TrEMBL record:
It comes from Isoptericola sediminis. Residues 1-29 form the signal peptide. It comes from the Bacteria. The keyword Signal applies. Keywords: Signal. GO terms for biological process: carbohydrate metabolic process. This is Fibronectin type-III domain-containing protein.
Length: 262
């Protein structure tokens, strides 16, 4: 009589094994959880004209420049949802202009507005659908020029080369004093100049406020308009009027000046 229930036990064990196998199959077939998207978009690459050209000699209108910055589209698996433009003026912090923090992903451009002698720097970053933000692009700066007739205190002779040519400042120790800008400029670390060189040209020293930036040496065996850049380390930048002090009777002729901010 004791051997009677064994077939029942075998059936129960078989049912339990079937259930375990079925559950095991279910567990194996369950899909893995989707990994969170934590990869930021690629960094945009910004293009912006570094030195803005002077207005034409016969220009009439508002004396502003409106350079346009453009950038490459970022790439991202979940899709780019917007771009943030950040702008910085010398002596200020990076800020987002306008009322919209993130711009449309279809607009890969931004237009700046500069007055004579101003410098603006710009950088861009991208955001994706998961909220990841790319690294900021390398900063790109642009500067509008100063001209002697428009932007300098009239303490020096201003000449031109004839009709429809830009005037230039004529610096000499023979008469007059230093030539300086009408306005003060913030955090200036240098200047880019358009200077007339030649065998009869001379030298002049450039200052911002009381800080000496360097000396213009326009002496050369050939006479032509050249671009000269004078700068000091960024930590030596100063705020003040840009001054040109003649050092020789031989003249230094300056046509355009682009201040270089920190």
């Amino acid at each position: 009589m004791a051997a009677g229930p064994r077939p029942v036990r075998r059936r129960l064990l078989g049912v339990l094994l079937s259930v375990v196998v079925a559950l095991s199959g279910t567990l194996v077939a369950a899909p893995a959880a989707t990994a969170a998207d934590d990869t930021p978009p690629t960094t945009p690459q910004v293009t912006l004209k570094r030195w803005l050209p002077p207005k034409e000699p016969d220009f009439s209108g508002i004396w502003w420049w409106k350079p346009r910055a453009t950038w490459t589209a970022s790439r991202d698996d979940s899709g780019v949802t917007g771009y943030q433009v950040q702008v910085r003026h010398p002596g200020s912090h990076w800020h987002t202009p306008g009322s919209t923090t993130w711009r449309s992903p279809d607009r890969l451009r931004y237009r700046l507005l500069l007055e004579p002698g101003e410098q603006d720097c710009l950088r861009v970053r991208a955001r994706d659908a998961a909220g990841n933000v790319s690294r900021g692009s390398k900063r790109r700066c642009t500067t509008a020029p100063l001209t002697p007739l428009m932007d300098f205190v009239d303490t020096t002779l201003v000449k031109d080369d004839g009709a429809l040519t830009h005037p230039y400042a004529y610096l000499t120790t023979t008469w007059g004093g230093p030539t300086k800008t009408e306005d003060r400029f913030t955090d200036v670390r240098g200047v880019r100049l358009r200077v007339r060189t030649g065998p009869k040209a001379g030298r002049a020293t450039v200052y911002v406020g009381s800080r000496r930036l360097g000396t213009i040496d326009a002496r050369s065996s050939t006479g032509r308009w050249r671009t000269i850049t004078i700068r000091v380390p960024a930590e030596d930048a100063r705020t003040g009027r840009i001054r040109f002090v003649p050092r020789t009777e031989a003249p230094v002729k300056i046509r355009f000046v682009w201040p270089i901010g920190r």
